From TrEMBL:
Keyword terms, alphabetized: Membrane, Transmembrane, Transmembrane helix
Protein name (Swiss-Prot/TrEMBL): Nitrogen fixation protein FixH
Pfam families named in the record: FixH
Transmembrane residue ranges: 15-36
Family annotation (InterPro entries): FixH (IPR008620)
Length: 167
């Protein structure tokens, strides 16, 4: 009887690699997901989600006030500036308003643009950054008594209209 002893090191045995391959694949997949998740972090869920959910009735009231006053705005973006024309039953027009630019998927990209009244419902403001892709645009009254809303894909080819939401 002859005995055949295998003097190969363990790492040269194909059966060992076959046995370890699911574990190795799992570790590589986990590391890949960790890196992708870290790079594409989009923030946490708003901690005040319950409070915001309860405040939805206030949002409806803001829309109704804007509709009663016949408010609408038209925004155009050119050369780093935001030009806005606001029409409706406002007497007098507020000296300053704030346009909120909200990214639908990443709250960390949200920003606001203060706009100054130039006269006759015309407003002008400077954009702090270049705007690309989809954005939700909101305009509130000075005491947040009314709200206008619009959604646009930037860069815009035509002016963006902000209107009271129809819910």
């Amino acid at each position: 009887m002859s005995s055949h002893s295998n003097n190969q090191p363990w790492y040269k045995n194909g059966m060992v690699w076959l046995a370890f391959s699911p574990a190795i694949a799992g570790v590589l997949t986990g590391l890949t997901l960790l890196v992708v998740g870290s790079i594409n972090y989009d923030g946490t869920v708003n901690e005040n989600y319950y409070k915001e959910g309860r405040g939805i009735n206030q949002s409806f009231e803001q829309d109704r006030v804007a509709e009663r006053k016949g408010l609408k705005a038209s925004l155009s973006f050119a050369q780093g500036q935001l030009n806005m024309v606001l029409v409706g039953d406002l007497a007098p027009f507020p000296d300053q308003l704030v346009v909120l630019m909200e990214n639908p998927t990443r709250s960390s990209l949200d920003f606001s643009v203060p706009v100054q009244h130039l006269g006759s419902g015309r407003y002008l403001g400077n954009l702090p950054q270049k705007v690309n892709y989809d954005w939700d645009v909101k305009l509130y009254g000075p005491q947040k008594e009314w709200r206008l809303y619009g959604r646009g894909h930037f860069p815009l080819q035509q002016p963006l209209d902000l209107l009271p939401s129809k819910r």
